[in-house]
Amino acid sequence: MSKASDKERDTEKTPFRSGYVAIVGRPNVGKSTLLNQLLGEKVAIVTPKPQTTRNRVTGIRTTAESQMIFIDTPGIHQARSLMNRRMVDIALQTLHEVDAVLWLLDSRGRIGNEDENIAGILAGSKSRIFILLNKIDLISKGKLLPLIQRCSEMLPEKEIVPISALKGENLPLLLELIEKSLPEGPKYFSEGHFTDQSERFMAAEIIREKVFLLTREEIPYGVAVTIDEFSEKQEKNLIVVKATIHTARDAHKPILIGKRGVMLKEIGQQARQELEALLGCRVFLELFVRVDPDWTQDPRSLTEMGL
Ligand code: GDP
Ligand code: MG
After folding, report:
1. Which pLDDT does position 50 carry in this prediction?
2. Confidence tier at 128 by pLDDT (50, 70, 90)
């Protein structure tokens, strides 16, 4: 019997599965780290600071057996500003549109009111729920059992998987469980696709990540990045990117620029290197800083930033 018909028989036995998987949880529990690890590609920016992720970020994992479309969401938390409210809305809305939900908890933390609220929302969801206890590399094994107990009381009969998104611990098992939970379905995206984000959007996100990593205190939270130009110069194998860093406060502008421009130069250099790796060509990156007092409260500018 030829190899091809063997293969055909195999695929008859195990139908192709596909579906949408949301990654939810409080800020900073490791959602974006998990997404990047499950894909083996960096599609979401990660920083040690909470509330880095502002939009939904989609990552696609395709194998011979299945296609998982992951949606990384902004953290679910109590929101004060208009921007934060929109971020939470995006996260909650996502729950109703998916086949499975990965709910991440930091295994070092206590289960609080906010977690119970999330559990309440998840209890009513029709999707398959996985409770992931993340960052187990940071705790002793003895601490895990009471936490598992607590979670199974809060949300009975849901799968609980302890993981380390950072170290990759238990992720192969997790992928198997997710795969089994998906319905039979088509390959929605072709093989080479690992995200639905445009290069332009990723460029803005990479710049924002560097601002988060290089500046302190409240500065990163007041910052948004827009791309003013993104053009390919084919003859020179070069992409020209011009971007504006918007800040809400006058006082933040000189900090973002730095003494003799050193801060802006550092942000630009780090972002450019990463962009060159992502785009596979040389990048000419020009950054501007603009004071834009109300951008976090202004519906129109939020819409411009994709929120
Ligand atoms: P998000 O806000 O939920 O998307 O969280 P991030 O993915 O941005 O991660 C927040 C911080 O936690 C980053 O500094 C990560 O490196 C760190 N982190 C995420 N997962 C793990 C883990 O499994 N172990 C450890 N030690 N750190 C982690
Ligand atoms: Mg995130």
Report:
1. 67
2. very high
pLDDT 10s digits, 73-100: 766 665 556 666 666 676 677 777 789 9
Domain boundaries, the chain: 6-181, 199-304
Distance between Cα 306 and ligand 1 center (Å): 24
Select the more confidently predicted residue: 265 or 48.
265
Do residues 130 and 158 make contact, with C-beta atoms less than 8 angstroms apart? Answer: yes
For the domain covering 199-304, report its CATH number: 3.30.300.20
Domain range 6-181, CATH architecture: 3-Layer(aba) Sandwich (3.40)
Closest residue by CA, ligand 1 atom 13: 48
Ligand nearest, relative to CA of residue 102: 1
Q: What tokens does 19 get?
A: 């579906």
Pocket of ligand 1 (CB under 6 A): 27-33, 46-48, 50, 52-53, 75, 134-135, 137-138, 164-166
Phi, psi values for residue 208, rounded to 5° = -65, -40
